[in-house]
Design goal:
Shape of chain B: globular
Largest interface: A-B, 32 and 31 residues
Number of domains of chain A: 3
Radius of gyration of chain B: 18 Å
Radius of gyration of chain A: 26 Å
Order of helices and strands of chain A: HHHHHHHHHHHHHHHHHHHHHH
Largest sheet of chain B: 6 strands, mixed
CATH class of the domain at 1-79 and 151-163 and 183-249 in chain B: Alpha Beta
Helix content of chain B: 25-40%
Strand order of the largest sheet of chain B: 5-6-7-3-8-9
Shape of chain A: globular
Number of strands of chain B: 9
Number of helices of chain A: 22
Largest sheet of chain A: none
Structural class of chain A: mainly alpha
Number of strands of chain A: 0
Oligomer: heterodimer
CATH topology of the domain at 1-79 and 151-163 and 183-249 in chain B: Rossmann fold
Helix content of chain A: over 70%
CATH architecture of the domain at 1-79 and 151-163 and 183-249 in chain B: 3-Layer(aba) Sandwich
Strand content of chain B: 25-35%
Distance between the termini of chain B: 43 Å
């Protein structure tokens, strides 16, 4: 190897050779199938969406997310940290910053282009659909290039990287979807997408330059007054009542404040729109809807850090010796995280519940809301209106808490590949969800989907119950939870399911919705399997 | 109560293809300072992590105070003081918060002793851990490992953060004090001169195997040449074939 370009290429090839071999094998199989079909004229087509999804969509999506992880160095870094995810070991290499940023982008862009062009060439596409030649390749390359730039950028606050990346990728995805929706010509799509990789390269070069000179902006000092108040309050408490309360305090200080902080930052920007809404009911309700969704939405990002035991440890996913050597059981360590999540959720929702009435009153938009509530109570009755509002609120609060804790079962394993793999799967899901929904709507399959819902839900419930039984047996045999806790937990879960079922029957009790479907929904809506896996995951991590 | 503080039997641990511990047997009675010596990568930290329950025994067994540290972390860890070589104290805590947090876990925490140690180590209560020097961080870690007078003190390469004078004064005094009270210290290091100063018993580990384990005086007698008792470093070279320092380099 006599050049940096060859060395960087070799590193990617060598580290990910098994993935690349699998991809080459897949493309080879596609090519062979097509060869057989074309030469022998066999009547094979992929008009069935299931077979097309199985043969083409799923593999290409998996490869896309895999490439995102590979070419951003996402398997090495920490998504939630302020520091750049670009590997620091590469900064000492005698190459320019332009090359440091440009070479992985060059390889990534080439890989994405080849992925699309090979798939387009070798796959058997459903008949009657014009397959564009270039713009999907450019879309994939653009998404990768921006992901690289945004993940390599140092950020002033922990967790900001995830928000910026998701918002920006979502914007590009939305632009492409809009253009598709309006049946834009390929040249328009190209005009939108061609500038993206060069712009992303400039951003990436700037990001790598900052990271290389150790320039990490820090806005945490802006919250010094908050920290000072916290110190004063903490001085008042002489001692902790128990080890569990000490650990809960530790978790709160470490992770609990990020969600209320993010909500506090976003709320003013959202609620200020009320002043510009005029008399538009739609706009007022859209703004309120967005505000109510802010805590659960932000909780998905805050959750990325909740399972970590230290933001500064070299192995930030593993349990640090400081935490691992606390004389607490694995269940008590998990319980501290769950308590922290409750406090964090409550803090975030106190902010929302204070800010919304205040903003409605000051902006004069409260009349619109009150008038709508009055009309609703006239139709369904006051009691039902109050219950609906309270339930909606409770649903949002419960969703916030669930978002914070439901990924613990992955995060607490401490296995970087599992954690990062799940993150990239989620990113891939979000990127592909739009086109998939568009396809469902365009192909008029909503009715079929609706008819299949009971079966889909029943299958999901089956999986959930089987997983839960397996987990409970493991928890029992490994004595991670006491018999009393297991029985109490099971009883509380059953109670929650029946409570939700009862409310659903009361609210939606019509002949059009069968009761068993409501029961399936209640079972699926109540956290069980993933939450109860958390002590097992932590035990796997703490006692390796 | 078991007289064996630590009882390791047939412990083997592999990381991928590498055998980190190979059929290790070790039995440490109460009331002495045990030096665990070996080159970097010899298996010292892996053995200590098994004792703390941070690694699960793949084969063989580990008992601390007669208990399995994985099955009963509370029973074991509440009686152990541990100073990690990684020095991973939470940087965001202040010294007084660290003390307040740590005391919640140990019923035997001695406030007066903790304060005495804090003053002896010159640790400011309002100082943030992340702003402390490496030596001060080690002192803070030592403070919270000592303040509840643990039955077993485990020090994993504790000297890495301390300058020679502080190292000699603080560690020597602390280890002797604890041992005098009938408590037990397991002290791992690859700096053999340091171990020689404080340990009563020495266990040498090399490539995952225990090559020697006996009282220090006994070891010296066993290796006496022409009436001269060799240093621990010389004995290590004789047993292992290289010096710990050389392996480290």
């Amino acid at each position: 190897m006599r050049s940096p370009i060859a060395a960087v290429g070799w590193e990617f090839r060598q580290r990910h050779r098994w993935g690349l071999i699998a991809l080459a094998g897949y493309l080879l199989i596609l090519a062979m199938i097509k060869l057989v079909v074309v030469t022998r004229g066999l009547p094979i087509n992929l008009d069935s969406p299931e077979s097309f999804a199985f043969v083409v969509v799923v593999p290409i999506t998996a490869t896309f997310t895999y490439f995102l992880a590979v070419f951003t160095f996402g398997l090495e870094g920490d998504l939630a940290a302020r520091q750049s995810m670009y590997p620091a070991r590469m900064f000492t290499r005698p190459v320019t910053t332009a090359a440091l940023a440009g070479l992985p982008m060059l390889y990534g862009t080439a890989a994405m282009m080849i992925l699309w062009l090979a798939t387009r060439l070798f796959a058997l596409w459903p008949s009657g659909i014009p397959i564009p030649s270039l713009w999907p390749a450019l879309l994939l390359a653009s998404l990768l290039a921006w992901t690289q730039a945004l993940t390599w950028m140092p950020y002033p606050l922990p967790g900001l990287r995830i928000i910026v990346t998701v918002v920006w990728l979502g914007t590009i995805d939305a632009l492409a979807l809009l253009a598709l929706h309006f049946k834009a010509h390929e040249s328009v799509m190209l005009a939108i997408l061609v500038p993206q990789p060069p712009l992303a390269y400039l951003a990436a070069r700037f990001a790598v330059a900052r990271a290389r000179r150790g320039d990490v902006p820090d806005w945490r000092g802006s919250f010094a007054a908050l920290a000072q108040t916290r110190r004063v309050l903490s001085r008042r408490r002489a001692h902790f009542a128990s080890p569990a309360s000490a650990q809960a305090w530790f978790e709160w200080r470490l992770h609990g404040q990020s969600l209320p902080l993010w909500v506090a930052i976003l709320l003013p920007f959202e609620l200020v729109l009320l002043w510009g809404s005029g008399d538009s009911r739609t706009l007022v309700f859209t703004i309120l809807f967005a505000v109510l969704l802010t805590p659960p939405f932000m909780a998905t990002f805050a959750a990325a850090a909740v399972s970590r035991s230290s933001p500064n440890a070299s192995d930030s996913y593993g349990v640090t010796p400081f935490t691992a050597t606390r004389p607490l059981t694995d269940a008590e360590l998990v319980a501290a995280k769950l308590k922290m999540a409750i406090r964090s959720t409550i803090a975030a929702w106190i902010l929302v519940l204070i800010a919304i009435p205040l903003a409605l009153e000051l902006s004069g938009a409260s009349d619109i809301l009150l008038e709508r509530l009055r009309r609703l109570s006239e139709v369904v009755g006051t009691a039902r209106t109050v219950v609906v509002v309270l339930l909606a609120l409770w649903g949002c609060i419960a969703a916030t808490w669930t978002q914070l804790v439901q990924s613990l079962y992955i995060g607490l394993t401490g296995r970087a590949s599992l954690i990062k793999g799940s993150v990239f799967l989620m990113l891939g899901f979000f990127v592909l969800f739009g086109p998939f929904a568009e396809w469902i709507i365009d192909s008029n399959r909503l009715g079929e989907l609706w008819s299949a819902l009971p079966i889909i839900f029943a299958i999901l419930v089956g999986f959930k119950i089987i997983a839960a039984v397996w987990i409970v047996v493991r928890l029992y045999h490994r004595r991670l939870l006491s018999d009393r806790t297991l029985v109490t937990g099971a009883a509380a879960w059953c109670l929650a399911v029946f409570a939700i079922y009862g409310v659903l029957v009361w609210l939606l009790g019509t002949p059009h919705v069968p009761h068993y479907l409501l029961m399936l929904i209640a079972i699926l809506a109540t956290p069980l399997a993933r939450l109860s896996t958390a002590p097992l995951a932590l035990a796997w991590n703490r006692h390796r | 109560m078991s007289e064996q503080v630590i009882d390791v039997s047939g412990l083997t641990r592999r990381f991928g293809g590498k055998t980190a511990l190979d059929s290790v047997n070790l039995s440490l009675p109460r009331g002495a300072v045990y030096g665990l010596v070996g080159a970097n990568g010899a298996g010292k930290t892996t053995l200590i992590k098994h004792i703390l329950g941070l690694l699960r025994a793949e084969s063989g067994s580990v008992r601390v105070f007669g208990l399995d540290p994985v099955a009963d972390p509370v029973g074991v860890l509440s009686r152990i003081g541990y100073l990690s070589e990684e020095n991973d104290l939470p940087g965001w805590m202040r010294v007084d918060e660290l003390i307040r947090f740590s005391r919640a876990f140990y019923p035997a925490w001695d406030d007066a002793y903790a304060e005495e140690l804090r003053q002896a180590f010159a640790l400011e209560p309002a100082a943030q851990i992340k702003n402390l020097s490496k030596g001060q961080k080690a002192r803070a870690g030592l403070l919270i490992a000592l303040a509840y007078r643990p039955e077993l003190l485990v020090l994993d390469e504790p000297s890495s953060g301390l300058d020679p004078i502080v190292r000699r004064d603080i560690l020597g005094a602390v280890i002797r004090t604890i041992a005098d009270e009938g408590r037990t210290v397991l002290f791992s290091s690859h700096l053999l001169e340091e171990v020689e100063q404080v340990a009563d018993h020495v266990t040498m580990i090399d490539r995952g195997k225990i090559v020697l384990s006996a009282a220090l005086d006994e070891i010296r007698e066993m290796h006496r040449v022409d009436g001269r008792a060799p240093s621990l470093n010389e004995i290590f070279v004789a047993r292992v074939g290289t010096t710990a320092a050389a392996v480290e380099l």
